[in-house]
């Protein structure tokens, strides 16, 4: 009778080494995090002790401190952190800053397909024809897609067209042509030229 073979799901030496390495890395991260927290706590305690010593030093010398030679700067912090604008610093003669407003897209009439020149046909798809073209105003090369409309359907743009517009609007990938705008045309054969 043949002996039972080794299970392919059994742990190997590589698996044990990988687990040990991951455990060490996890322990190192935990140790570093604890060290960072300890240093932060120590730094906060040191700042509190310095502030307390400075406050006690001011309380003991109400007359301005010592012999007047200015050597008592060692107890004060080297630089004071400004928490808010001081009233005298804010009034430097400048007018208050104005908010800048940038023009954003808004709802309005759609542009016409006549703003584009058709260069050549690329391919016909399930929902329409794709052509290469240029924008007349900027000379930028764009992809133009003419959606297939069913003549008997008088309800306007088909649901598949709206779905495709929404999908193209949501897509953001270097291999997918971005949707810049949706245009309309008076002539149904505007892109057939």
User: In sequence order, what are the helices and strands, one letter per element?
Assistant: HHEEEH
Name given to the CATH homologous superfamily of the domain at 110-193: Phosphorylase Kinase, domain 1
Strand runs, count: 3
Helix content: 25-40%
Which structural category do the helix and sheet elements fall into? alpha+beta
The name of the CATH architecture of the domain at 110-193 is: 2-Layer Sandwich
Query: Averaged pLDDT, please?
Result: 78
Shape by Cα distribution: flat
Sequence stretches where pLDDT stays below 50 over 5 or more residues:
63-68
Biggest sheet descriptor: 3 strands, antiparallel
Order of strands, widest sheet: 1-2-3
Proportion of beta-strand residues: 5-15%
**The first-level CATH class name of the domain at 110-193:** Alpha Beta
Radius of gyration: 36 Å
CATH topology of the domain at 110-193: Phosphorylase Kinase, domain 1
Q: Helix count?
A: 3
Distance between the termini: 81 Å
Provide the descriptors you would attach to this structure in a database record:
193 residues, alpha+beta, Phosphorylase Kinase, domain 1, 3-stranded antiparallel β-sheet, 3 strands, flat, cyclin-dependent protein serine/threonine kinase activity, CDK, EC 2.7.11.22
Written account of the structure:
By secondary structure, the chain is of the alpha+beta class. Among the domains are: 14-58; 110-193, Phosphorylase Kinase, domain 1, CATH 3.30.200. The protein contains three helices and three strands, in the order ααβββα. It has helices spanning 13-60, 87-90, 159-170; strands at residues 116-124, 128-135, 141-147. The termini are far apart.
């Amino acid at each position: 009778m043949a002996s039972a073979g080794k299970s392919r799901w059994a742990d190997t030496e590589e698996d044990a080494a990988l687990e040990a390495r991951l455990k060490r890395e996890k322990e190192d991260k935990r140790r570093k995090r604890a060290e960072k927290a300890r240093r932060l706590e120590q730094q906060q305690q040191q700042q509190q002790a310095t502030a307390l010593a400075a406050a006690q030093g001011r309380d003991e010398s109400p007359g301005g401190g010592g012999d007047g030679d200015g050597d008592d700067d060692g107890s004060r912090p080297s630089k004071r952190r400004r928490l808010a604008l001081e009233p005298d610093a804010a009034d430097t003669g400048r007018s208050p800053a104005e908010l800048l407003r940038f023009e954003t897209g808004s709802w309005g009439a759609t542009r016409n397909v006549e703003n584009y020149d058709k260069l050549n046909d690329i391919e016909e798809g399930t929902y329409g024809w794709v052509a290469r073209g240029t924008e007349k105003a900027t000379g930028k090369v764009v992809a133009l897609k003419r959606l297939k409309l069913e003549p008997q359907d008088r309800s306007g743009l088909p649901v598949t067209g709206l779905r495709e517009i929404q999908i193209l609007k949501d897509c953001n990938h270097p291999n997918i042509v971005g949707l810049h705008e949706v245009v309309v045309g008076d002539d149904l054969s505007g892109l057939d030229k």
